[in-house]
Design goal:
The chain is α+β, with helices and mostly antiparallel strands. 31% of the residues lie in helices and 20% in strands. Strands 1, 2, 5, 12, 13 and 14 form a 6-stranded mixed β-sheet that branches. It has a 5-stranded mixed β-sheet with strand order 6-15-11-7-10. A hairpin with a 5-residue loop joins strand 8 and strand 9. Helix 1 runs antiparallel to helix 4 and helix 4 packs across helix 6.
Length: 422
């Protein structure tokens, strides 16, 4: 039985392309038609230098054929895209064989490009259905390039001083601390092999968009969660001045309350209050039910809450339970007993992650052909790879991040490895 989300997404592509195909070409569209891909060609220059600013697209040129810039479709391109998406839908629905569809479609040189465009749109649709929990208690940032980014924090922190009439304003002694990081490129290749087509391996072909989206989101979850899970720099038990943010207590309501009380007395510069009351209780999957029991509240699928009988817990409406499945993977030693508290990242964030501007989502590329038919002297994308006859697509994703311990971000979180009873 085909996946409903996937089938709906394909139907959306068909509908969008059909509407675009019905449009009457304007003069501007006529110019656009000359830039639409009739075949596939290596990327050329996609940006230009401007002073000290380097357009990231320049660095990425030559990596293959990228589909997302072609979202503006001429009617001719849209008509072919609708045809390919319709064929794709018929294949994964079992109404048509993969081999027959490919044999018919490969007669057109633009088929691999249109198939890649279809896959790209399906990957984005799949990607959008995921809502990784780390986004709730970390801060997101969009950066313009691959240079190091970070934050600079000025330390002063004293309250305002009364200024007598005619006197100068006193100046605070300032110092600075900063943290830096850079985004990185992540990716993976996926092949549609000749054997897959000949063997009519429809299921493997149908799973391809979901596999691409899953790989991208799993990469995100792993990289961002690694910035806080069992992080020995972010969490320390001996900071002094009664401002330690690491414990060993089991997950119980008494220990949660003790951790909350420890966090709320953390002070900022000049001994001023931070007002960083935690609002998220982050746990591994193995502690999900226990977290609900300890807080004395269950959240139903409709969004309403039910207080468990015999409980009286003032934290039930204060802390939101968040499950991070990466905790036991990143912390094999204590990952099934650990629990974390986080403040509102809009007020005080302990972890920050960044995406590349204009490329916040995973992108799909197609490998340019490298096989030339003897006698024709030309490349045809349908010929695939010279080495193994395959068509190849890849997913590329950009991400970076850091925990903000150097700027006091550690005061917005708490970690207990759950190894002792108190």
């Amino acid at each position: 039985m085909p996946d409903t989300v996937l089938m709906d997404a394909i139907e959306g592509i068909i509908e969008t392309a059909t509407h675009a195909a019905e449009a009457i070409p304007s003069a501007a569209q006529a110019v656009q038609e000359n830039t639409e891909p009739a075949g596939v060609a290596p990327l050329e220059e996609l940006g230009r230098y401007q002073g000290e600013q380097l357009d990231p697209q320049i660095l990425l040129a030559g990596e293959g054929y990228h589909f997302q810039p072609q979202r503006r479709m001429s009617p001719q391109y849209a008509l072919r895209l609708a045809e390919v998406a319709t064929g794709y839908k018929a294949v994964i629905a079992g109404r048509r064989g993969l081999r027959g569809w490919f044999q018919e479609s490969m007669m057109r040189a633009d088929f691999p490009v249109l198939l890649g465009d279809t896959l790209d749109r399906l990957v984005l649709t799949r990607y959008a259905t995921y809502a990784p929990t780390y986004r709730m208690f970390t801060r997101r940032r969009v950066v313009p390039n691959f240079r190091s980014v970070g934050g600079v924090r000025r330390h002063g922190g004293s309250r305002l001083t009364q200024v007598a009439e005619g006197n100068d304003y006193p100046e605070d002694a300032l110092s600075e601390s900063s943290f830096t990081y850079a985004i990185s490129k992540y990716g993976k290749k996926y092949r549609i092999t000749l054997e897959m087509i000949v063997n009519d391996d429809t299921q493997a072909f149908a799973d391809l968009p979901d596999e691409m989206a899953q790989d991208a989101i799993q990469t995100e979850m792993f990289l961002v969660s690694a910035l806080y899970v069992a992080n020995g720099v972010l969490f320390q038990a001996a900071r002094g001045a009664n401002m330690n943010n690491r414990g060993t207590a089991l997950l119980t309501i008494t220990n949660i309350e003790a951790a909350v009380n420890a966090m709320v007395v953390f002070t900022g510069d000049g001994n001023n209050p931070l007002n960083n009351t935690p609002i998220y209780l982050v746990v591994p999957p193995s502690l999900r039910i226990k977290a609900f029991r300890e807080l004395g509240v269950l959240t139903l699928s409709g969004g309403s809450t039910v207080t468990l009988a015999g409980t009286s817990n003032v934290l039930a409406g204060e802390l939101q339970i968040v499950v991070d499945p990466m905790i036991p993977i990143l912390d094999p030693l204590h990952g099934n007993t650990s629990w974390y508290l986080f403040s509102d990242p809009a007020r005080l964030h302990a972890v920050e992650y960044a995406c590349l501007a204009g490329m916040e989502e995973p992108q799909v590329f197609m490998r340019s052909p490298n096989a030339v038919r003897v006698g024709s002297g030309s490349e045809n994308p349908a010929d695939g790879s010279f080495e193994d006859d395959s068509l190849a697509y890849k997913v590329r994703h950009f991400l970076g991040g850091a925990h903000t311990n150097p700027t006091g971000g550690w005061k917005g979180c708490w970690w207990s490895d759950g190894t002792t009873s108190s």
